[in-house]
Amino acid sequence: MCMKTEFLFLTILNSGPKHPRASLDVFLRPLIEELKELWSTGVEAYDISLNKNFNLKAVLLWTISDFPAYGMLSGWTTHGRLACPICMEDTKAFQLPNGRKTCWFDCHRRYLPHGHQLRKNKTSFLKGKHAIRDYPPQSLTGEQVLYERIRQVNPLKTSDCGGNGHEVKQRGYGDWHNWHKESIFWELPYWTDLNLRHNLDVMHIEKNFFDNIMNTIMNVKDRSKDTVKSRLDVARFCDRKEVHVDNQGKAPFPNFRLTQPAKEALLKCVKNDVKFTRREIFRHEES
After folding, report:
1. Which residue in 3, 61, 20 sits closest to 158, CA to CA?
2. pTM score, whole prediction
3. Is residue 255 classed exposed, middle or buried when 0-12, 13-18 and 19+ CB atoms within 10 A define those classes?
4. What is the DSSP letter of 4?
5. What is the CA radius of gyration of the chain?
6. Distances (CA, A) of 188 to 61, 146, 179, 191, 271
7. How many CB atoms lie within 10 A of CB 190?
8. What pLDDT band is residue 137 in, cutting at 50, 70 and 90?
9. What Pfam families does its record include (predicted)?
């Protein structure tokens, strides 16, 4: 059945250094035109259960992608201090001076209910900082995003620049906005009415979290996130003296790292008690 014409679809593979990045809208143009038709006039289809034709209409509820592709689809760049497309300019992210990475540590407490005891905590999160008066970012409607954010910045549409003009950033880019283009999806007449326009595929997110956690607690060489630079950043921002680097430049053994007996017990459990399906074993052998 999957090889029949009516069930075939075109897959666009654009990997490598020359993938379209911000100019992905060039490839989405045929899709957008079909979606407009399916929304406005519809197409004739056949209902086999009723044995008659009917007018079929359709709507695109949201996109599903990983986080980098989120930026390609939405027009909001998903890296740097303003990477979060929900917080936007109201982000609490900051740069780690030693790790040289953007950090979102302690950005979540403002989502807690007012009066929550963790909002008053000054020792378990950022050193000496409470979140009593921190409020979550404003929840914007589609119309607010388009007219009060995108149209105020007025980034180029891919169709206007021929697909090669998104390298030139608009005024304020990286400071108070991350818009590099006006996405082609805003051409859909219902796009501003959707509260959730882009979804994240959790597969890669879950894998990255799992890999980083396991590499850190197992202290895997060159893959653990527990480094001297990270310890220096912890000493600067957090009140956790038990993991601070001492005057001799040595880092004490952290309580989150497994000892050798604990590692052996974990590996023994995985080997003897964890069960895998044949498909998972086959995929592991292939890789």
Report:
1. 20
2. 0.84
3. exposed
4. S
5. 25
6. 11, 12, 19, 5, 52
7. 12
8. very high
9. Transposase_21
Q: What does the alpha-carbon distance between residue 107 and residue 124 come to, in Å, rounded to a whole number?
A: 13
Amino acid of residue 96: L
Tokens describing residue 120:
């008053």
Domain boundaries, the chain: 1-91+137-200, 202-286
> Any idea which residue has 């540590």 for tokens?
105
Closest by Cα among 16, 273, 236, 270 to 127: 236
Query: Amino acid identity, residue 71?
Result: G
Q: Kindly report the number of other CB atoms within 10 A of residue 228's CB atom.
A: 12
Measured from the Cβ of residue 31, the count of other Cβ atoms closer than 10 Å reads 14
Are 235 and 126 in contact, with CB atoms under 8 Å apart?
no
The neighbour count for residue 247, using CB atoms within 10 Å, is 5
* Backbone phi, psi, residue 4, to 5°: -75, 150
Q: Judge contact between 185 and 197, C-beta under 8 A.
A: yes
| Beta strands 43-47; 52-56: pairing state | antiparallel
pLDDT single digits (tens) 152-200: 999 888 877 766 667 778 899 999 999 999 999 999 999 999 999 999 9
Using an 8 Å Cβ cutoff, are 109 and 92 in contact?
no
Mean pLDDT, all residues of the chain: 89
The helix/strand/coil state of 64 is strand
